[in-house]
Amino acid sequence: MSIPTFQEIMRPWLELASDGGEHALQEVISSLADKMALTPDERAQMLPSGFQGTFTNRVAWASTHLQKAHALDRVGRGRYRITERGKSLLAEHLPITTARLMLFPEYQEFKARARDAVSTSAGLDDITPAEAIDSAIQAVRSAVATELLDRIKASPPDFFERLVVDLLLKMGYGGSRRDAGQAVGKSGDGGIDGVIKEDRLGLDAVYIQAKRWESSVGAPVVREFAGTLDFHKANKGVLITTSTFTADAKTFTQSIGKRIVLIDGGMLAELMIDNEVGVITESTYRLVRVDQGFFEPE
Questions:
Q1: What is the pLDDT of residues 37-94, one digit of tens each?
Q2: What's 187's DSSP letter?
Q3: Per DSSP, which regions of 41-88 are E strands?
Q4: Can you tell me the distance from the alpha carbon of 33 to that of 39, in angstroms, rounded to the nearest whole number?
Q5: Closest listed residue to residue 193, CA positions, set 232, 250, 245, 155
Q6: DSSP-assigned states of every residue in 115-172
Q7: What's the gap between Cα 111 and its chain centre?
Q8: Each residue's pLDDT tens digit, 229-255
C-alpha cells in the first residue's frame, strides 16, 4: 500500500473527529497512520527535501483543505474540532475530495485566492516543467498568504501591532525590538502603534500605524495619520492594514509632502513570507539544467 494522498486522508480525518472532541494534529497523524495501516517504512518516508515526513505533510494539507471548507474548526494551535458541515459530509457516505468541497462558497474563495488550480484548462503539455514548478510554488505562497491573514485577523490587536514592528525590523530597519516596543500601546501616543529607527544610527524615525480591519481604509484615515505625523514632527510613516486601501487613500498619499507608505493585507502577507516572519521553510528544491558549454569543444 502506498501512502494515501491528502484527498484520501480527508474522510478518515473527519471520521476520527466525529466524536466531537478536540484533536491535536500530532495525535491525528499517529492515529491515522494506525488506521490506514501504514508500514514503518511508509511512516518514515520523507519529502525530497528531507525536512518533513510525507504522511505528516499530507495530513497537514488535508487539515487545511477541510478547515477552508469549514468542515473543521481550528480551536487552538494545531487543534481541530469537526463542524456541523463536516458531520454532513460524513453522512453522505461518499468520497470527500476537493471537487466535493468546491460546492462550498468558502472553499471556492480559498481556491480562487490560492490559485490552486494550476493551468488545468491549458493542460500540462502546454507548460514547461520549470513553469509548472513555478506555478505550484506561487499557489503554495498564495495559500500561505491567505492563512497568514486569517491568523492575523483572529489575533488580539496588540499582537498585530507587535507583528508589524517585528516585520520592519526583520526587513533591515535599525534599532531593536526593545526600542520599538517602548512606543507600542502608550496612552497619548496620538494614534501611533510603533516607532522604528530608519537606520541603525537612528538618524530618522519611521512612525507606524496598524489597522486590523475588514473594510477598506479610506482617505480620512490616511489624512488623520498625516496629521499625527505633524504632531510628532515626523516626515515618514508606514500605515499597514489587513484589508485594502481605497483609491482616494492612495491618491491623497501621493499628493502630500510627507513620505507615507501604504501596505495592504496582500503586501503584508508577501513581505512576511519573503522575510520569514510567521513562516518556516518546509522544503527546498534545486532546479538544474544541462550546461551546454560543458560539452562544447574547447
A1: 999 999 999 876 666 788 998 998 899 899 999 999 988 877 899 999 999 999 999 9
A2: T
A3: 72-76, 79-82
A4: 8
A5: 232
A6: T-S-STTT-GGGS-HHHHHHHHHHHHHHHHHHHHHHHHHTS-HHHHHHHHHHHHHHTT
A7: 14
A8: 888 888 889 999 999 999 999 999 988
